[in-house]
Amino acid sequence: MVMALLLFVSLVEAMAVNGLNQQVQRNIGASAGGQALDLAFVMDCTGSMGSYIDTARKHIQAIVDEIVTSSNTTVRLALVEYRDHPPQDNTFVTKTYNFTDSVFMMKIWLNAARATGGGDGPEAVAEALFKATKLSWRPEATKITVLISDAPPHGLVPSQDSSFPGSPTDTIQ
Ligand SMILES: *[C@@H]1O[C@H](CO)[C@@H](O)[C@H](O)[C@H]1NC(C)=O
Ligand SMILES: *[C@@H]1O[C@H](CO)[C@@H](O)[C@H](O)[C@H]1NC(C)=O
């Protein structure tokens, strides 16, 4: 069974433990007998995101503790960081950390995440979500992706999109 839920959060504060946990409960409740949860965070790591990454780092343990305690669920976590396509950003487009059952490992990844660069307004959202589909999702798990971002993808508003008035899909590998 495939169950994907995309939560668009413009403020990570909106990812407060309770809100996300309620979403998770609803989805687990809806999936017959599902006791496995795969939770992927897709995170904009461009310049403006510093405080959001800090908040995610602070709350991730609480979110996982809450989910594990209240739903008796085995949780695995994954992280996809993204910035932008060259020439807007020359560091990386996406950086993927496949699923782990270790909250400790997830924290190490979040601790290493840095907010920098990004160039123009829109970022490589589409590429990041594409990478999220390639993670090692368990077939039987409830699957949730949380997108943490403060900027739109390329290709939506051509007039504000100097580099990629269309979506830069040709660069998706
Ligand atoms: C949690 O799940 C395990 C394994 O499925 C089960 O043995 C245990 O009784 C459950 N605990 C609660 C509190 O539901
Ligand atoms: C995650 O792991 C799976 C299984 O090992 C692999 O097929 C997949 O390519 C990996 N995904 C990414 C984005 O690294």
UniProtKB/TrEMBL annotation:
Pfam families with a match to the protein in the record: VWA_4 (PF25106)
Superkingdom as given in the UniProt entry: Eukaryota
InterPro entries: HMCN1-like_VWA, Thr-specific_kinase-like, VWF_A, vWFA_dom_sf
Compartments reported by the entry: Secreted
Signal peptide boundaries: 1-19
GO cellular component, one term: cytoplasm
Keyword match Secreted: yes
Record key words, sorted: Secreted, Signal
Keyword presence, Transmembrane: no
Residue ranges annotated for the VWFA domain, each copy included: 38-173
GO MF entry, a single one: protein serine/threonine kinase activity
Main location (coarse class): secreted
UniProt-listed PROSITE patterns: VWFA
Protein name per the record: VWFA domain-containing protein
Upper taxonomic lineage: Eukaryota, Metazoa, Spiralia, Lophotrochozoa, Mollusca
